[in-house]
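[scheduler] slot 2 assigned
[scheduler] job type: sequence-to-structure, two independent chains
[scheduler] chain ordering preserved from manifest
[runner] begin chain α
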Amino acid sequence: MLAYKFRSSAQIARALDIIFEQRLHCADWSTFNDPREGFFHYSPADRQKLNALRLAKQRYRICCLSKTMESRLLWAHYASGFDGLAIQVELPDDDHPITIHDVNYEDVLPDAALHPGAFADELALSFLQRKDREGSMRTRCASFSQTSGTHCLHR
């Protein structure tokens, strides 16, 4: 699958790393520019489930990519107001340790109480694949890894 990573002109070193080393940096979800990334509804009475979900979300690293490079909004926001670049990458197939998921834009935040029997890891991944429609400025796919740092695009 083809995808695009936008980079500002100030991030030229990261752009060159993607191009020449064929790798992408996967970040902790809490470092994203959207403060509502990974949010979900929960009952304050269910502290044990909340803590398990927080820990599970911390184990994932995410690299956000776009399915298109044709959006002016993406160029303005993620490529230094049209001063950066979009790098086309070929995402690995199903045989790769990193999983690729479309982001689901929804009108409401997911609710942990609606999934009483689900495991924390399963819920964390599901919640990180969702985004509040209010912030849907782009179509993106996200690659998820349970290890930190940089991940190669080739085997």
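[runner] end chain α
[runner] begin chain β
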Amino acid sequence: MSGPRFGSYFLAGSHDRFALASIVPEIDQVVVGLKLVSFLDPIISGDAAKNLETIVLPIYRQMDPEILALGSEMGQAYDDVWGRSFDAGHYYLATPPRGLTGSPAIIFVHGSAGNFVSYLWALRSLSQQHGFAVAHPSFGFGMWSRKGGVEAIESPAWRDRSILVLEGAEDDRVPQMYADRVVAQLRAKGALVDYRVYEGHDHFLLFSALDRAVADLAAWATSPAPGQE
């Protein structure tokens, strides 16, 4: 295939290479954040932060130079925290070996704290081994519930859509009871929901159970939708 396997693109705005978040390597931003998070976030204890450090930092140390060269877009997450405006048109893109044309697509919506470039690396096998084009849009600190989020979950457009939901049984940030409620809402709208709860894992199961999560996602995405077998 021609072109890069991984890219950083903008529908609006552009990369600010002089911003502090662009100058300081993202791994160093994460190290500082994990040292401070237990003081700023009552849900994440000191022990939880240390556990996150042992899970997340190795991902950065294993990263391909092609991804490291993309730089960090965490600046918009910081802008969002401080109430400043940010460009919502940025996304990372992982292109499969066959190229984008005709490839199935996955859109990965990041969680709170921003669109870490480590997500692109962690999910690389979905594009490089399983053939999906994987887009990672950025939206500030990750407050996706703003401006249309609730309406989206209640939309009749979900009818007959096949959806996979992965939830950590020990998640104290988005407790299982809330995931249960969302799944029930989606099913009530006619969505075909495959709901899987990971026992012993919390909100950060994408890192703590990465191989299992990617395998489940790849298997689900390549299986016929119910009624289409």
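[runner] end chain β
[qc] chain β: The mean pLDDT is 87.
[scheduler] slot 2 released
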